[in-house]
Each structure stands twice: as structure tokens, then as C-alpha cells.
């Protein structure tokens, strides 16, 4: 589902920072070799993540859902000096794919890859987080939120992707599939949580931007 008219979308991209070459190469190889290449963040969302991160200048970022590394590179562009990004993915087959591009982007020392189920790995992370990007299995969004909120410093941010789920969040809840229900529940949970401030950006498939009070 297109949220923006295609011609406006074209104009938006033509008047936003271009993608770095390394991300164009990563995109090409993802479409050639990976299953579900559409999962990759892409130009507009990637530049949005990069810009948000440059504004926040986080020391420690946690990303849940590496895939081929596109969003990890965008986020790492905005790290504070000597900052680091920990990125988790359950799919070990993509580890070397993403690593190759972290090296190409000159970010191999800033990005730490963890392979495995994020619900198991997150409790092992002993860091105060400045920013978390949630972009993995939708059924666990609310769990990830509960797990990372206590690890997030006051004034830290959570960015959650795909919260509009191609518009399916408007469908009759009882008739929705498991992932859609999980996203509806997640958006409701965030909206009702007095410990955070949030805004839902209708960028691409929807981004919840959440700040811990
Ligand atoms: C939408 S893709 C991430 C896209 C990536 N952030 C980007 O923009 O390029 C979702 C990823 O989450 C991973 N994933 C799914 N369930 C997971 C889990 N329980 N723990 C860790 N990763 C998981 C998948 O293997 C997949 O690579």
C-alpha cells in the first residue's frame, strides 16, 4: 500500500539526501540474493533513521532485526564519537552478508553483530541504551518494548518500524491475523503508556517514535 502518491514520493526522494553508494550496492545485492528483499528499510526511511540518529547522537544503539544491514548502517552514521550499535538477527545465514557491508561502510568497529533470538539475547546485554530500533518479528514488538524500556536511559528513544502494517491496523481486530493484532496491541500499549511520549510518523510503513520521560 502506498501512503504517499507515487509522484509526491518521487519528489520527496529527489529532495532528500541521496543514499550512500554502499547502500545502493547493498540494496542491489539484497534484491539479487535475499528472501523478502522488501524488508530492507530503503532510501527515505534509511535517510530518516540516519537523520534522527544524527540528531540524537547516541552512544549505544540497539537494533532488533539486522537483515542485510541497511538500517544498521543508516543508524550507525549518526553515532556519537566512539559510539556503538549492537544489532541482533536470528538468521545466521545473513551474518556475513551484513558484515561485508559494515566493512565496506567503514563501520565494522562501531557495529557489533549478535546472532540468535532477540528475546534471549536482549537480557544478556548489560548496557544503558540511548536508542533502540525495533524491526524484527511483529508478534514480539510488545515484548521487546517491555524488555528494552528499563534499559533505556531517561530521554532515550525507541523507534519501531512497520506500525501501520500496510494499513491493516485499520481492519476489524477480530478478523486480523496474528501479526496485525500484535501491531494494533503494540500501538495501543505505547499510546496508553504514561512513561513515554510518542508520535507515529506515516513514513513508508509507519514509524513509532517513542521518548522515555
Ligand atoms: C524487517 S527485517 C529487518 C530489516 C532491517 N532492519 C533493514 O532495514 O534492513 C526483520 C529481521 O528480523 C529478524 N528476526 C525475526 N525474528 C527474530 C527474532 N526473534 N530475533 C532476532 N531477529 C529476528 C529476521 O531474520 C529479519 O532479518
Task: Give descriptors for this structure.
213 residues; alpha/beta; Rossmann fold; globular; binds S-adenosylmethionine
Give the helices and strands, then pairings.
Elements: H1 6-14, H2 21-33, H3 43-56, E1 60-64, H4 70-76, E2 84-89, H5 95-104, E3 111-115, H6 118-121, E4 129-134, H7 141-148, E5 152-161, H8 178-192, E6 196-201, E7 207-212
Parallel strand pairs: 1-2, 1-4, 2-3, 4-5
Antiparallel strand pairs: 5-7, 6-7
This protein binds S-adenosylmethionine.
Q: How would you sum up this structure, described in words?
A:
This protein is α/β, with parallel strands linked by helices. The chain has one domain (6-212): Vaccinia Virus protein VP39 (Rossmann fold, 3-Layer(aba) Sandwich). Helix content is 38%, strand content 21%. The chain is built from 8 helices and 7 strands, in the order αααβαβαβαβαβαββ. It has helices spanning 6-14, 21-33, 43-56, 70-76, 95-104, 118-121, 141-148, 178-192; strands spanning 60-64, 84-89, 111-115, 129-134, 152-161, 196-201, 207-212. A 7-stranded mixed β-sheet has the order 3-2-1-4-5-7-6, with helices on both faces. It is globular and about 45 Å long. The chain binds S-adenosylmethionine. S-adenosylmethionine binds next to helix 4, strand 2 and helix 6.
Amino acid at each position: 500500500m502506498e501512503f504517499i502518491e507515487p509522484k509526491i514520493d518521487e519528489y520527496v526522494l529527489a529532495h532528500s539526501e541521496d543514499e550512500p553508494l554502499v547502500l545502493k550496492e547493498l540494496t542491489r545485492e539484497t534484491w539479487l540474493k535475499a528472501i523478502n528483499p522488501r524488508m530492507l528499510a530503503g532510501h527515505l526511511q534509511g535517510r530518516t533513521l540516519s537523520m534522527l540518529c544524527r540528531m540524537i547522537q547516541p552512544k549505544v544503539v540497539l537494533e532488533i532485526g539486522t537483515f542485510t544491514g541497511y538500517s544498521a548502517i543508516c543508524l550507525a552514521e549518526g553515532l556519537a564519537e566512539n559510539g556503538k550499535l549492537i544489532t541482533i538477527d536470528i538468521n545466521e545465514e545473513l551474518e556475513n552478508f551484513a558484515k561485508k557491508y559494515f566493512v565496506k561502510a567503514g563501520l565494522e568497529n562501531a557495529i557489533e553483530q549478535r546472532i540468535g533470538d532477540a528475546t534471549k539475547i536482549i537480557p544478556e546485554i548489560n548496557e544503558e541504551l540511548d536508542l533502540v530500533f525495533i524491526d524484527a518479528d511483529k508478534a514480539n514488538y510488545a515484548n521487546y518494548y517491555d524488555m528494552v524500556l528499563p534499559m533505556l536511559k531517561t530521554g532515550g528513544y525507541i523507534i519501531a518500524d512497520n506500525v501501520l502494517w500496510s494499513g491493516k491496523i485499520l481492519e476489524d481486530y477480530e478478523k486480523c491475523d496474528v501479526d496485525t493484532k500484535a501491531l494494533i496491541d503494540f500501538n495501543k500499549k505505547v499510546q496508553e503508556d504514561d512513561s513515554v511520549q510518542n508520535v507515529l510518523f506515516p513514513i513508508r510503513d509507519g514509524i513509532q517514535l517513542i521518548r522515555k520521560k
